Amino acid sequence: MNKLLTTLAAGSVALLMSASAFAADVTMRISLQLPMKSHLGQNLQLFKKEVEAKSNGNIEVQIYDSAQLYKDKEVPAAVGSGAIEAGVASLTRYVGDVPAVDIFYQPFLFNSEEKVRKAVAKGSAIRGPIDKAIEGTGSTVLWWQAYGGAIMLSKGGPIANPDDMKGKKVRVFGKTLGQFVEATGGAATLVSGSEQYLAYQRGTVDAGMTGVSGVKSRKLYEVMDTITITNHADIEFIVVVNSKWWDKLTDGQRKIIGDAAGVAEAHVRNYIAEIEADAYKVAKENGMKVVTPSDADIRAFKAASSSVYEQYKAKAGPLGAQLLDAASKL
């Protein structure tokens, strides 16, 4: 009996030692508000695969999707305080600390893929200062995730010009986008991404704006029937890590994570056009009507929303002026 107990004890110790030998040295939890099947979720999966392969499992990446841990608006504080190692947030979630981030929501400013790519390039005259400013919140930007152009969602007809906006309650995901809605005749309601399906389903809002990939990943075609391709803003998400946690990593660990971030960023940026095209296809297959505004409609939107620029200049200060100047040179 004693011999059996000794054998069992030895086996248990061996198992514990074996488990310990394979335990990760570093755990990196990432909060994501979107479903794992979304292109941002798939992008995190690519990052996870790269990191764990290159570190031989010494760095474990855990992804908590669908706002399991934090909603989008809670991510900046959660990561900045160290409550979680990393998170994905819409860039506009930093507007309270860095008002200039809403440069990307100035109406029709980044109206081509070429301009967007130049603006979001690492170290560019626009992204560089934004990344630096976000460091002041206790977070370090790892990479930017493309989400595409902003579109309008509606039911019973398109939002193709300011006349269509009048009297509508419109879901937005940032104050500057709310200013765009109000300037063009609508009433803005701030609703997080994870809650917009219910907002449309319950009639809390009449219309809304999002990226078209969200129509597919969140099945918004079940509650709305029309997409208007306004592309009036460029939607960017950022993956941030707690700066103190980041600084405690070894140079080798930071290199592995940084290299994987570079792979993930390039992949999502290069495939965003394909991702959007697929989302439009899915929307149409599920009965949605897709409307492209006329040049005259876009001019009307631009004229009606010119005040958004003035409000941005007043709030964004010297950094905002610097970014607008850089954008004018793209």
Describe this structure in words.
- The structure is a single chain.
- The chain is 48% helix and 18% strand.
- With 330 residues, the chain is α/β, with parallel strands linked by helices.
- Strands 1, 2, 3, 4, 5, 6, 7, 8, 9 and 10 form a ten-stranded mixed β-sheet that branches.
- Helix 2 links the parallel strand 1 and strand 2 (59-64).
- Helix 2 packs antiparallel against helix 11 (251-285).
- It is globular, with a radius of gyration of 22 Å.
- Residues 1-21 have low confidence and may be disordered.
Structure at a glance:
48% of the residues lie in helices and 18% in strands. The chain is of the alpha/beta class and 330 residues long. Strands 1, 2, 3, 4, 5, 6, 7, 8, 9 and 10 form a ten-stranded mixed sheet that branches.
Query: Given the structure, what is the number of helices?
Result: 13
Overall pLDDT confidence = 93
Order of helices and strands: HEHEHEHHEHEHEHEHEEHHEHH
* First-residue to last-residue Cα separation: 80 Å
CATH superfamily: Bacterial extracellular solute-binding protein, family 7
Q: Low-confidence parts lasting 5 or more residues at pLDDT below 50? A: 1-21
User: What is the number of domains?
Assistant: 1
Main beta sheet, described? 10 strands, mixed
Report the portion of residues in β strands: 15-25%
Overall strand count: 10
CATH class: Alpha Beta
CATH architecture classification name = 3-Layer(aba) Sandwich
CATH domain topology? D-Maltodextrin-Binding Protein, domain 2
Q: Percent helix among the residues?
A: 40-55%
Alpha-beta content class? alpha/beta
Identify the overall geometry: globular
